[in-house]
Automatic annotation (TrEMBL):
Keyword tags: Activator, DNA-binding, Transcription, Transcription regulation
Matching SUPFAM superfamilies: Homeodomain-like, Regulatory protein AraC
Family matches, as SMART domains: HTH_ARAC (SM00342)
Species of origin: Paenibacillus odorifer
Protein name: AraC family transcriptional regulator
MF annotations from Gene Ontology: DNA-binding transcription factor activity; sequence-specific DNA binding
Domain HTH araC/xylS-type: 184-282
Pfam families: AraC_binding, HTH_18
Xref: InterPro entries: AraC-bd, AraC_XylS_family_regulators, Homeodomain-like_sf, HTH-like, HTH_AraC, HTH_AraC-typ_CS
Amino acid sequence: MLPFSLIELPRDSGTLPLSPYSVGRHIQFHHVRPAGFPVYQIFLIRTGTGLFRDLESGTEIILEPGMAFAFPPDRGHEYYPTSHEPWHVGFIGFQGSQAHGLLEALELLPSVPYRTDRFEQCWEEIGQIWHTVNSPAPNRQDEMWMQELSITLYRLLLMLRPAKSSEGSGNRLAFESVRNEALTTAVGLINEHYTEPLLISNLAAAVGYSVQHFQRLFVQEYGVTPHKYLQNLRLERALQLMTEDMEIPVQDIALQLGMETNYFIRVFRKNYGCTPGVMKIRLLQGEQMK
């Protein structure tokens, strides 16, 4: 086990395109970060299973052994173990002028978990960074020391890049056809059942994909996660219900959308900048002015 370690940086470290901020490998318990973490994070799951929740979107993701997962800074989240087996997680926090662009270029953002083929090598790289910053007497103000850490971090990110398929063009076209049909089916199911308590895991199973692979394909095709697509559809329907009946209680709207009332209000406020009750008043005032 390698406990959480903050990395003391020299004052001019901000000039580096990538620089580590924190690192560790240990058993994880329940963590809640309403304001998020100040830098980008990458998690590697060694053993056990845990749940990661994005507090801004409400998206919940199951993280299992062999998976890697990147998450942006300053975004509220929480995570906790869900298995009896200890949830052993490796992690590294990092920043730098090239951090976001590199994560997007390597397809590590948007945040979708996946199984990395080079898990063991990535696990060891995290260990190497931890041992480097916790060596007995590192000169933390030394430029070469920081450059070596930056290079090691860059190498880790390259190893984390999802593997590309080497199939021929004919196979790729066939795959694209199957994928598009599956995603079209999934969107049809969402449009048909969005008023029910719909689980993304059930959608993925219905079209023959694992949850992680389904989410990745969906984001590539539509630019949002399945959860966000479903949420947007529900919010559009909520506005329609308010327009059709100004007297409809907020609880009834949430019920018709398959959502718990408090969660519906929270999501609505985040998306529209006001509560459903305030929106109803605005819509009513708009009608009266016509």
